[in-house]
Amino acid sequence: MEENHIVEVENLYMYFPVTAGILRRRVADVKAVDGLNFFIKKGETLGLVGESGCGKTTTGRCILQLYEGIKGKVSFDGVDLTNLKKEQMRRMRRNMQLIFQDPFASLDPRMTAGEIIGEPLKVHRLARGKEYKEQVEELFRMVELEPYMANRYPHEFSGGQRQRIGIARALAVRPKFVVCDEPVSALDVSIQAQIITLLERLREELGLTYLFIAHDLSVVRNISDRVAVMYLGKIVEITDSDELYANPLHPYTIALLSAVPIPDPQVDRTRQRIILKGDVPSPINPPSGCRFHPRCQMAIDICKQKEPELKLVGKEHWVSCHLVKPQAGTSDLSAAR
Questions:
Q1: What is the mean pLDDT of the chain?
Q2: Higher pLDDT residue, 310 or 330?
Q3: Interatomic CA distance for residues 189 and 100, integer angstroms
Q4: Do 56 and 138 form a contact (C-beta atoms < 8 A)?
Q5: Taking 90 as the threshold, does the pLDDT of residue 268 lie above it?
Q6: Strands 45-49, 71-76: pairing kind
Q7: Model confidence pLDDT, tens digit, residues 130-156
Q8: In this structure, are residues 248 and 317 in contact, taking their beta carbons and an 8 Å threshold?
Q9: Sheet of 25-41: strands edge to edge?
Q10: Does the structure show a pLDDT above 70 at 328?
Q11: CA torsion sign, 149 to 152 to 154 to 157?
């Protein structure tokens, strides 16, 4: 594991069984995550984007080892998480936390905000008595909430305030790495900007590393240092944020970016929008070869037969496409664009 990498994922697989009949026999598998390889550098934000159901949330939870039956290797700070026993993993989770997507469903309605934020301190036995109360108050201020709100219940807060409570709960144990699972998708646009600004400030102040999962490419652009694009359980492209938006190479990435609104009306009217044909194939029975080929306008025979490898085509620019050559900017695909 390289020194500046905090997370490394090698050949990660997560299949969910499909059962049928009275005996609940296993008849198929949902291939939610199907052979992922990537890393996250210390102090950076890696954005993970893709359509609903492509495996983004499953990837985040696999890194945190929240699912059983995970295949592959996940290393965190040089430690192989897949070989840890339950008690060892429980202690390791102090360094790895999760911010949930839905601020309405992720908070226990029977607990006060103070109890929710302070619960990790009790679980990991980090503070008691006066010290516990002081740390809870500090966490409230950290996410720009007033400590006097500690006795209120979740239903007394707005959506943005609830998400701040969720963020404070995740940061209570002072983690190094946080998986942000679409933390702004359930919020109004104005509140989204506030939460993203808060997350960026906390990353700088606390030296955090984020895996930021989202389906909104404009949101990911603002917060991410690098972006990975996922399609049907596979990563199809990963590179620096600026490079991805300036020079997308995979046809799926190009199609996604063509749908992102541009503030300039004249530019927005003149650019070509790519409408993908058909629907996303079932992860139970994915297509042979490249998984995107049934919807790709540029697919050739080899795309249907052979699965493309995720290959380096430029400086820290990986693409999984037969049409993209190892020299970035000289591929047939970039010329076609």
A1: 89
A2: 310
A3: 18
A4: no
A5: no
A6: unpaired
A7: 899 999 999 999 999 999 999 999 999
A8: no
A9: 25-41, 5-20, 71-76, 79-80
A10: no
A11: negative
Closest CA to 294 of 308, 314, 279, 283: 279
Beta bridge partners of 131: none
- Burial of 49: CB neighbours in 10 Å, binned 0-12, 13-18, 19+: buried
pLDDT band at 330 (very low <50, low <70, confident <90, very high): very low
CA distances from 182 to 64, 101, 186, 258, 278 (A): 16, 5, 8, 21, 26
Farthest CA pair distance, the chain: 68
pLDDT at position 267 is 61
Retrieve residue 16's tokens: 């969910």
Nearest CA among 158, 227, 226, 169 for reference residue 194: 158
Phi-psi region of 87 (alpha: psi -120 to 50; beta: other; left: phi over 0): alpha
Q: Where would I find the beta strands (DSSP E) of the chain?
A: 5-20, 25-41, 45-49, 71-76, 79-80, 96-99, 177-181, 209-214, 226-231, 234-240, 311-314, 317-319
Rounded CA separation 48/194 (Å): 20
Contact (CB, 8 A) for 45 and 209: yes
**In terms of DSSP bridges, do strands 209-214 and 177-181 run parallel, antiparallel, or are they unpaired?**
parallel
Distance CA 161, CA 159 (A): 5
Of the candidates 54, 59, 91, the residue with the CA atom closest to the CA atom of residue 74: 59
pTM of the model: 0.90
Residue 180 or 257, more confident: 180
Q: What is the pLDDT of residue 124?
A: 87
The DSSP string of 242-288 is: HHHHHS--SHHHHHHHHTS--S-HHHHHHSPPP---S-PPPTTSPPS
Q: Return the H-helix or E-strand segment holding 12.
A: strand 5-20
Answer yes or no: are the C-beta atoms of 170 and 101 closer than 8 Å.
Answer: no
CB 203 within 8 A of CB 183: no
Taking residues 208-219, report their average pLDDT. Answer: 90
C-alpha–C-alpha distance, residues 199 and 52, integer Å: 23
